[in-house]
User: Fold Elongation factor P hydroxylase from Pseudidiomarina terrestris.
Amino acid sequence: MSHADYQTLIKLFDDCFYADYRTRLVAGDDEPLYRAASTPDADHEIVFAHGFFASALHEIAHWCIAGAARRQLEDYGYWYEPDGRDAAQQAQFEQVERKPQALEWLFSLCAGVPFQVSVDNLNGAAVDRQAFTAAVQQQLVTYLTDGLPPRAERFARALAQTYQQPWPSARQLLNYQGVA
Assistant:
């Protein structure tokens, strides 16, 4: 099974969540976006960028964290400050992104694919990628030690089973060198 096959992710997400949440994972042509259902009988959509496997994992991570009220709002009602953020905006971005990127890392481990944090600020303030990676890693260790959000755990376990990967432990993650 190819790890670059986003169709597998779409089916797996559908199997895990469609019946309970009426949410579909959709390959998009442009930027990622969460579309809340526009009518009571419509589906919610998690649109990931350009068919990229990593983008799908990242967008699923955001969905796994969003509460019921946020899942009724386009893009969960969050702001997004594009590339070119100043130091304060970047610090806020990293604070908000720590949890979803920790889940994306878990999903990557469970799918057997490399993970790399996204600082998403190539034209802005200097970024300490190593410090952000350490913060994301610590968040994942906390999740593995104290418990994962339920939807995230359901999806991660389905990934691990599908891709025949072992369930990661906090101890293994502390020594993990597989970050790209």
